[in-house]
Description:
Helix 6 packs antiparallel against helix 7 (192-204). 45% of the residues lie in helices and 21% in strands. The chain has a seven-stranded mixed sheet, with helices on both faces.
Amino acid sequence: MRVTPYSNSSETKKKQIEQMFDSISGRYDFLNRSLSLGIDVYWRRKLVKQLQKEKPAHIIDIATGTADVALSLIKLNPKSIIGVDISEGMLGIGRNKIQKKGLDSTIQLAWGDSENLKFEDNRFDAATVAFGVRNFENLEKGLSEIHRVLKPGGKLVILEFSRPRNFPIRQLYDFYFKYFCPWWGKLVSKDASAYRYLYDSALVFPEGNSFLEISGSCGFNNLTSERVTFGIVSLYTGTK
């Protein structure tokens, strides 16, 4: 099932995602913290921890947004981090944050389409995606591109929303994401559609074993899945 941010638009999903994030970029960080109740910081720490043993020198962060994950990856002391995103609005805010921390020499942000990455084969030691794979227009193509730019043995770590399975967490989750998030998103960013899309896209995303199967078909091995925070989020890993 195809879910897009603006159902009345004739634009492609990719273009609508770009427009959506440009629209909310100025309030994105505030909304991210408030809607997650600050737990997003913990989720990013979990992602970074998955790469501590590998100590990757060169990392690509797909759908980097305002660069929160890229900035968190600094703890691994890599030689370089490249963040790519299709929203210039989000990238602009990310660049300002990086500049303020004096990390321009290590972290670089660039406009980029996750399904057509402008990098040579076997370039990166690790790849990360936080809450971005469900926005891919073609999931298999996006995963295959990440696989292509990873070095043999390179590691992929993904954070993505999933749906809790147990009562009453599932019911609370559905109410919160279906009704409260669009209301709060509209109040703060004036774009309720963006936060309605958050729930709708999570609803149809092939989570858990289904996602692992798709990742495997795109060439990834040693695949794992861990449900985090009552199953609100899943952490996936794999290697090339």
